[in-house]
C-alpha cells in the first residue's frame, strides 16, 4: 500500500514475494535491499544528486557483515545518511530504522525542556480574557485513514469552536514549538476556522514543478480535489482574525507543514526561531517481509507553491519561553503586541 504520509493521495503500489524454498539470511537481505535500492533510485526526491553505483557497491559490501535480516536493518540508516535521506525510515515489527538527527539543545530554554518532558498534548485556553491560545503538538500515528483522521481532528476542532463561541477575542496564538511532526491532516482540519476555504499547502518535485495541492473546503480536507477526511464545522470562520504562529527549532516535518499552511494568510505573523528543516513529503511503500519504507518523494510548499528549506520567523525570539506564565513568555508577548496593533 502506498499513499502520501500526511495524506496526499498517490496511486497504490504493492509488492509480494513469491514463496521461496530454504531462503538463507543472506538471500533475505539481498531481496530486501535490492528492492529498497530500486525504490530509492526511482522515487527519492533527490535521486539525481546520488552516485547510485558507488552507494550500491558500498552498501552491498557492508551487508556481508550481517548474520540475519533483522540486524541488517541497521544498514538502512547508514544508507539513508549517505544519500541525505534524513526523513526516510524503515518500519519493521513496530520498530523504526533510519538516521538519527540530533537537534542542538544549546538554545532550548529550561522551561521548554521541562514542558517537553511532560509530553504536552493539545491545549486551548483564553489568555487575560482577550486572546485565544492553542498549543498544537505533534500527532504521532501511523493510521492515516479518513476515520481516524476525523476521530483525531474533531475533538480538537470542537474545543476551538467552543472557545470561539463563548468569547469575543481580539486574536489567536497558535503555538507549534512542540510540534515535532506526525500526521498533519488532523492538525490542519482542527485549525479549519483559521484557514478557511482555501488552498493551504502542496508539493513540488526537485525542479519546482507542482505535483499536488491540498485544500480545505467546508470542513473537508481535499488532496488534489479528492476528499480524504473532514470535520463538522460550526459557526463563523476565523479566516480574517489576527493570528500569530509561534515556531521553534524543533518544529519539524508535519509541524512545518502546519506552519506552511499559514503562509500567505492575511493578518498572520510568525514568531520564534527558524524551524528544523524537514520539509519533504513522504509516502509509505510496502517492502518484503511485512516491512514499510517511508520515502521522501516531494518537497513541501505553501499555498502559493513556494518551497522553504526552513521557515524563518518574522519576529525572532530565542530562549525566552515561559510555560508557567504564558503572559510572561516573550513569544506570547510579541504575539499580543502584533494582535493589538490597529
Question: In words, what does this structure look like?
Answer:
Residues 1-21 have low confidence and may be disordered. The strands form two sheets. Strands 1, 2, 3, 7, 8, 9, 10, 13 and 14 form a nine-stranded antiparallel beta sheet that branches. The chain has helices spanning 25-43, 52-63, 69-72, 74-82, 110-117, 146-166, 184-190, 192-195, 254-260, 330-340, and strands at 3-4, 89-92, 95-98, 123-127, 131-135, 171-175, 199-204, 210-217, 220-223, 226-230, 243-247, 268-272, 280-287, 291-301, 315-316. The chain is of the alpha+beta class and 342 residues long. The protein contains ten helices and 15 strands. It folds into two domains: 3-98, no CATH class; 110-279 and 299-340, 2-enoyl-CoA Hydratase, Chain A, domain 1, CATH 3.90.226.10. 42% of the residues are buried.
Summarize the SSE layout with pairings:
Layout lengths: L2 E2 L20 H19 L8 H12 L5 H4 L1 H9 L6 E4 L2 E4 L11 H8 L5 E5 L3 E5 L10 H21 L4 E5 L8 H7 L1 H4 L3 E6 L5 E8 L2 E4 L2 E5 L12 E5 L6 H7 L7 E5 L7 E8 L3 E11 L13 E2 L13 H11 L2
Parallel strand pairs: 5-6, 6-11, 11-12, 12-15
Antiparallel strand pairs: 1-13, 2-3, 2-14, 4-5, 7-8, 7-14, 8-9, 9-10, 13-14
Keywords: Signal
GO biological process, one term: signal transduction
InterPro entries: ClpP/crotonase-like_dom_sf, Tail-specific_protease
Summary of the model, kept short:
Helix content is 30%, strand content 23%. The protein is of the alpha+beta class.
Mean pLDDT: 91
**What is the ordering of alpha helices and beta strands?**
EHHHHEEHEEHEHHEEEEEHEEEEH
CATH fold field value of the largest domain: 2-enoyl-CoA Hydratase, Chain A, domain 1
- Tertiary shape: elongated
Query: How many DSSP H or I helices?
Result: 10
- Tally the structural domains: 2
Catalogue the unreliable spans.
1-21
> What is the distance, rounded to the nearest whole angstrom, between the alpha carbons of the first and last residues?
51 Å
What is the CATH architecture assignment of the largest domain? Alpha-Beta Complex
Q: What structural category characterises the helix and strand content?
A: alpha+beta
Total count of strands? 15
Please identify which CATH superfamily of the largest domain we are dealing with: 2-enoyl-CoA Hydratase, Chain A, domain 1
CATH class of the largest domain: Alpha Beta
Keywords: Signal
Signal peptide: 1-19
Organism: Chryseobacterium shigense
GO molecular function, one term: endopeptidase activity
